[in-house]
């Protein structure tokens, strides 16, 4: 194989993307003659022309279009490989695996990820939906690097960084009996109505976990099912201020207030990880960006 093949392909791809040999030379910081020579070498290697040079702007030939598609893939793969090797050399993670609690505010997470993507465009991020039901065991297993969650009852073998406090609210459909009651609503009224609850694992016993207030509980491991059950009037559930924002704005769902503070728990949002497996440089950068995004929240 031609040892300069990847470089020549990169030059060819740049010529097509820039629309001229001069533009490619400027972007690659090379002489125009060097760019022209690299493309000529690729054409010699292929045995047919890749570009039509009859106009001021070189255009792809029919076979050149096919080569361009393959060349673009190979050049991008080479870029990723180079970035991967540099990350290994620096001791950086080659991927960041994050468990995200189902009620973690995704708008702030995505804002932080946009900043991270701009700073580290070649980094690989993997997001996994989780909940407190199984979160700590997931962290202990090493299947994820850190978790974004509510920092309630953090185990002794975990450490955490708090971002901000949020208040949880009970909500119900506007047609639900609780929504038609005068507020503040007594806790006994909640105890007599069905509660909708997120459970991520069918092996988890809901009666031993979380804030369950009565015997009539329906559970789901899918947030959209929970959204539909609540808006459909099947029961009430706990949520943060963002999850039912559209339904509240339209009047389909109503936020409920109780005189009992157990119905309005305050929880710290943050990142958590195993004491013996702290996030690496890239994971730490995501945590920093999240701290900034949530710290700037209203």
UniProtKB/TrEMBL annotation:
<comment type="similarity">
    <text>Belongs to the LysR transcriptional regulatory family.</text>
</comment>
<keyword id="KW-0804">Transcription</keyword>
<dbReference type="InterPro" id="IPR036390">
    <property type="entry name" value="WH_DNA-bd_sf"/>
</dbReference>
<dbReference type="InterPro" id="IPR005119">
    <property type="entry name" value="LysR_subst-bd"/>
</dbReference>
<dbReference type="Pfam" id="PF03466">
    <property type="entry name" value="LysR_substrate"/>
</dbReference>
<dbReference type="InterPro" id="IPR036388">
    <property type="entry name" value="WH-like_DNA-bd_sf"/>
</dbReference>
<protein>
    <submittedName>
        <fullName>DNA-binding transcriptional LysR family regulator</fullName>
    </submittedName>
</protein>
<dbReference type="GO" id="GO:0000976">
    <property type="term" value="F:transcription cis-regulatory region binding"/>
</dbReference>
<dbReference type="GO" id="GO:0003700">
    <property type="term" value="F:DNA-binding transcription factor activity"/>
</dbReference>
<dbReference type="InterPro" id="IPR000847">
    <property type="entry name" value="LysR_HTH_N"/>
</dbReference>
<keyword id="KW-0238">DNA-binding</keyword>
<dbReference type="Pfam" id="PF00126">
    <property type="entry name" value="HTH_1"/>
</dbReference>
<keyword id="KW-0805">Transcription regulation</keyword>
<feature type="domain" description="HTH lysR-type">
    <location>
        <begin position="1"/>
        <end position="61"/>
    </location>
</feature>
